[in-house]
Amino acid sequence: MRRLLHALILGLLGAGIVHIAVLFLVPEFSERDAWSRLAMASDLYRMTRLDAEAGGAPVVKSVDPMFYAAACRFDLADGLVRIKAPGDVPFWSASVYDRNGHNIYSFNDHNANGEKLDTVVLTPAQMIDVRRDLPEDLQGAIFVEAPIEEGIFVVRAFVPDESWKPIVSRFLEQSACELQDY
Amino acid sequence: MLKTALLTLISLAIAIGLGGYSVWYALNAQDGVGAIRIGQWTAFPDVGSLAADPYSKARVAREGVLALGRAEGLAFVAERDEAGEPLKRECAYTIEGSYPTARFWTLYAADQSLGVIGTGKPRQAALQSYEVLRQADNAVVISVGNRPAPGNWLITNGFGKMYFVLTFYDTPIASSTGLSDVTLPRILKAGCNA
């Protein structure tokens, strides 16, 4: 009997350890996280619509129904990545996420130069290089220093009503996410 | 010998079974650590940030969420009305009151997975602050239900559990200091046709 009790207590202790271990391993091994879902939908440096409007189920859930969103995956080990979108929409906001889906940095159209989306994401080391000799066409861009390699960039745009749908769709479809030479 | 093996097996079964189940249970629970409650509305300002607790980090990874950043906005979710009853899709509600400072806000009726509910009609189960009619004191009264209502009407239909998601965009309340004296609208039940 005492040995059974001993085994039960040992089991409960083990359950505590397993609980903590599993909790910390879930983010490492999840195959359903945002990165994996995007990887299934498209390649690196390719803007992908997240909302269901583009056909099919939404890639990443929990997007406000009055918003359209697009995302691209990037790897800063390849170089800096530049995200641009032309056109005027009522409101847009952008976020940089790391590989595990943590929000590293976010900003919206009021923070941008002339309310145009023109951003460069780079590591602090690349920032030092770029600062030494800033190329002419990067003058107006927002620089986001992110201490990460792989990451996700998300643009969200507000659709106030039906009539804005084509304009906001065009804004996201013409947005570009590409490696930048410097 | 056999007894020892059996006892070891019991210990291991409890450890792995209970440990795994408890994580699964904790990740599926709707409210968790780090929640901020204002009236019936709940927000998780830290979800998706690096400062989040391990439970919300695991939830973010498991559900593939890309949470709104601080400069983007803050979402509040309500699952109960003012009387503490769970929200139901077959019931009509009135959402009334004033809203904190933000560039604009959106309100939508959601299902369990917090996706917008399908109405089967061209009209979405969503409203935004630029299209609502306001009272003289800037308060907004919204009628929720499957029957058209004068003023502001949020269409819903069907049966089962419902959630309201109220998201403020470009708002000072998303920064940590702004949340102390925020008031959010109240959700009053107007009746059910169950």
Secondary-structure-based class of chain A equals alpha+beta
Oligomer kind: heterodimer
How are the strands of the biggest sheet of chain B laid out side by side?
1-2-3-9-5-6
Q: What spatial form of chain B do the alpha-carbon principal axes imply?
A: elongated
SSE succession of chain A? HHEEEEEEHEEHE
If you compute it from the alpha carbons, what radius of gyration of chain B comes out, rounded to the nearest whole angstrom?
A: 21 Å
The average pLDDT value of chain A, as a whole number, equals 86
Number of E-type strands of chain B: 10
* Largest sheet composition of chain B: 6 strands, antiparallel
Q: Which descriptor suits the 3D outline of chain A?
A: elongated
Estimate percent helicity of chain B.
10-25%
Describe the secondary-structure layout.
The complex is a heterodimer of chains A (182) and B (194).
Chain A: H1 2-29, H2 34-41, E1 48-49, E2 67-75, E3 80-85, E4 92-98, E5 103-108, E6 117-122, H3 124-132, E7 142-145, E8 150-158, H4 165-173, E9 176-180
Parallel strand pairs in A: 6-7
Antiparallel strand pairs in A: 1-2, 2-8, 3-6, 3-9, 4-5, 4-8
Chain B: H1 2-28, E1 36-38, E2 41-43, H2 54-63, E3 73-78, E4 91-97, E5 104-110, E6 126-128, E7 140-145, E8 152-155, E9 163-169, E10 186-192
Parallel strand pairs in B: 7-8
Antiparallel strand pairs in B: 1-2, 2-3, 3-9, 4-7, 4-10, 5-6, 5-9
